[in-house]
Structures are given as structure tokens and as C-alpha cells.
Amino acid sequence: MIPSMTVGLLVFLGLSIPVGIVLFLLGFGIDTFFSPFPLVRGLGNMVWSTSNNPTLIAIPFFVLLGEILVRSGIAARTYAALDRWVSWLPGGLVHANIATATMFSATSGSSVATAATVATVAMPQAEKLGYDPRLFSGAIAAGGTLGIMIPPSINLIVYGFLTQSSIPQLFLAGLIPGLMLALGFMAVTVLLCAIRPELGGVRRVFPLAQMLRALAQLLPIILLFGIIVGTIYRGWATPTEAASVGVFGALAIAALFGRLDLGVIRESLLGTVKVTAMIMLVVIGASFLNFTLASAGLGAELQTMLDGLGLSPMGLILVVVGIYVVLGFFIETLSLMVVTIPIIVPLVVAAGFDPVWFGILMIVLIEMALITPPVGLNLYVVQGARKSGRMGEVMVGAVPYVLVMLAMVALLIAMPQLALFLPETLR
């Protein structure tokens, strides 16, 4: 059943059928041919119980927060401010791409939104200042992936919902690896541009007075991040409550530093509805598919198969990593998460691994899927913002950053405390 389901998934996706619909179709197929009783009779209750979970209410709030910051011009101001602070490094403005993606990730929660925001703001600068288009665009695609690692992260909310893990603990666990990835991206950029200076364009040094004035554009975003994450960690607010406070803060920042009018609010609300509807369709479709898989005995079948391999706990993790790397080439990231979590996570936890740690490891692997062809969404987002050049340039430019992610996977496996230190310290 596992091979037939995988083939069916790839065929449906190849036909450009929306991912959420594909998940429902697979669930109907398994229900018809493999399930011992007709599960479709419970479809209405399944849809209602999944969509009625209060944890998921945080998703539209975080999406709206990011939409407001983008459409009001705050993201462009943040980019210009960070340009003054990091463009002196080898690689110049490439570091501003990564730094802006890191800061915007701390409020957006979405990798695609982060990549689209930075690409829209940064791309006009690439040709004007003589940057290598491959490295410049690859850095934006890679920096955008931080949106699902650095809290607040929509993907971590979905992981916590599906595994019944603590979302505040997951947010804490993602902070150090997320910042390490950002520093790793900057380090590999420095290395490449030190070896081949022509890749990095012009290094610019700004007067200290300009740098200090630029802080005025950064402090509101830093304060907003502190309010959102701080209230969650201190136990003063749930993720949903903190997200609603974040929306109010974004509106205030947009009114004071950006542009806030009825047009911006209307566009932000419309964008939020579109993104939230897409996410919820995938989550609900995956819930139905996972229910049919469990009823048809797939979990037991997979457990029997892995037991037959005689793997050690570490061997199991390496096999799981390999599965995610391969599937990441072909399956959209949120779909990959929601389809595999109910099957893989119980096996990993049964082998003695912490579900919070595994959540962070999975997110790094999901991040890699965002910048690996042929289905890497961030690659297409950045190419769309370029409006010229070949797609292959973005793919080649992302390769060094994929290697950084692989190194982070190895570090998390070798040193789980990178993810578990903050949750255990502040528990």
C-alpha cells in the first residue's frame, strides 16, 4: 500500500491538482480499497473537529501580521536599515538579504511570504550594484526558509497540533537552530566572496550616524518580536492570543512608520484569507488521509517493515532523514509535514527520541525541501520576482545554503541540546 500511495500522490501532483484535493482523493481511494469499513460517512465530523481546534486560530493571525508589515512598506524600511549594518562584509548586500529574512521570519511565520517579501525589495538592487545573480537570488531563497524555523512559525504550530506537543516549547527549541542557520548562511557567503570577490558586488561602509539612525527602523520589529514571543514564553498568553496582540502591534507600527490606509487593510485581509484557506484545506485533507491510513493499518505495516530491518535508534533517524530528503524533491513542504507526521513521529518517539527535538530536525529537512528542485517553492518565488534570467541560476545559487542545512541536520543529531537547551532551561 505504501508504494501505491506514493505513486498516486506524485501522479496527482504532476497533474497540477491542488494539494488539499489530492489528499482527499488519496483518502477516498484508501477508504474504498483498503479500509474495512466506510470511513467517508464520518467525513463531516472529521472536517469540523479538525477545523474547530483553537490552536489553529493562531495561523490566520500570524499570516495577517506578516501581510500588514509587507503591504505597509515596513519590510522595505527594514531592508534599507539592515543594509547600513551588514553591507561592509564580503558579499555586501547579500547579507542584508539574509538578515532581513531573519528579522522578518521573527514576525511572519511563513517561508514563502518571507522569500517573496525580501525578493520584491532586494531584486532591483542586484543588477544595479553588480551582484552575481546566482548567489544573490540563492541567498534570498535560503533566507526565506527561516520563516518556518524562527518563532513564531506556522509550520511549528501545525506540528504541535498534529503531535500534541507544546507549541511554546517548539518555539523555544527553534530559536537557537534558526539563528545558527542564519549565521551559517552569512558565513558561507563570506567564504565564497572571499574566494571570489566578483560574486559579492560592492562592499559599502556607511557613517556611524547613518547606522544609528537606521536603528529607528529596526527597533519596532525587534520590539514586536519580543512582545509576541515573550508573552508566550512567560505564560501570559497562548500562541493565538500573542498572535492577536502581534496584529495590533503591526497595525500600530504601520501607522507610525509605514503606510496604513483602507487599501492596505483590504489587501492584507484578502491575502490572509487566501493563504489561510490554502493551509486549512491541506491540514483538513491530511487529517482525513491520516485517519484512513490508520484505519487501513498503514502504521502497523510501516512499523513491521522497519522492525524487520533491525535498525538501531540512530539508524532509524538516518533512514527518516533520507526519506525526507528524497520526498522533499517532489512534495510541497506543508503537505510533506502533515502526511508524514502521524506515521513517522510515533516511530521516532517509540525509539526514545524527544518529539520537540525531532520537530526541529524535521523543520530543517522541510526547509531544505523549499530550495531543492523540482518542487522547491522558494526557488519559484524568487525567480518570479527576478522577471528575467534562467531558473537554473536560482537553483545553483541555493546549493551552498543546502550544504549549510545538511550540516545543521548533522549538528542536531550529534548535539540534540542545540534544540532542547532553551526548552529545558525555561521549562
From TrEMBL:
It is a multi-pass membrane protein. Its main location: membrane. Residues 7-418 form the TRAP C4-dicarboxylate transport system permease DctM subunit domain. It is found in: Cell inner membrane. Keywords: Cell inner membrane, Cell membrane, Membrane, Transmembrane, Transmembrane helix, Transport. The keyword Cell inner membrane applies. GO terms for molecular function: transmembrane transporter activity. The chain crosses the membrane at residues 7-34, 54-74, 135-158, 170-195, 215-236, 242-262, 269-289, 309-327, 334-353, 359-382, 394-422. GO terms for cellular component: plasma membrane. InterPro entries: DctM, TRAP_DctM. Belongs to the TRAP transporter large permease family. The complex comprises the extracytoplasmic solute receptor protein and the two transmembrane proteins. Part of the tripartite ATP-independent periplasmic (TRAP) transport system. This is TRAP transporter large permease protein.
